[in-house]
Amino acid sequence: MNKFHIRKAEQADKGRIWEIIQQAIALRKEQGSRQWQDGYPNEDVVQSDIDKGYGHVVEADGKIIGYVAIIFDIEPAYNAIDGKWLSDGEYVGIHRLAAAQDPHVKGVGTAIMQGVEEIAVLNGVYSIKVDTNFDNGGMLHVFDKLGYQYCGEVHFRGAARRAFEKLLK
């Protein structure tokens, strides 16, 4: 079993992060999804994540194998949910989660989300809100496995997405 380690992304990680995101974009296309097929996310988004301190990488055996943006701030799209969140207080928003395909390591998405939960609690925030495309089976499985509850739909760049929340205490 690989030991996963999550840490803040640094400028030196940007190339590897972009490789992983490009792999995820190609995988979504191969799976017939329209998610991430419109020029988002791109290198400017990754740079912004790093600059703002949102970007995090997941490592195993010293190699970066995953990426996620962990955002301790309001996500405006989440204010207009078609449905109802479990809570109205502070939350951590998760975006741009991607796992490397070179090597493909089983369990990276789960490890990332578990790492996010630990980071949230360490920062005194006990709610995680996240969304994904309707056809992203991998992420939907991770959310189900880790006890995230479906709350409704949110809209990003003109598309409806499934929204989930997990309360951590």
Key phrases:
169 residues; 30% helix; Aminopeptidase; single chain; globular; alpha+beta; 8 strands
Secondary-structure topology with pairs:
Blueprint: E1 4-8, H1 14-30, H2 43-52, E2 55-60, E3 63-71, E4 82-83, E5 92-99, H3 108-122, E6 127-132, H4 137-145, E7 149-156, E8 159-167
Parallel strand pairs: 5-6
Antiparallel strand pairs: 1-2, 2-3, 3-5, 4-7, 6-8, 7-8
Number of separate helices? 4
Tally of strands:
8
Q: Helical amount among residues, as a percent range? A: 25-40%
The CATH architecture term is 3-Layer(aba) Sandwich
Secondary structural class: alpha+beta
Please state the CA-atom Rg, rounded to the nearest Å.
15 Å
Q: Which CATH top level class fits?
A: Alpha Beta
The arrangement of helices and strands along the chain is EHHEEEEHEHEE
Strands of the largest sheet, in order across it?
1-2-3-5-6-8-7-4
**N-C termini distance:** 28 Å
Q: Major beta sheet, specifics?
A: 8 strands, mixed
Q: Estimate the strand proportion.
A: 25-35%
CATH superfamily, by name, is Gcn5-related N-acetyltransferase (GNAT)
Pfam families: Acetyltransf_1 (PF00583)
GO molecular function, one term: acyltransferase activity, transferring groups other than amino-acyl groups
Organism: Sphingobacterium puteale
Keywords: Acyltransferase, Transferase
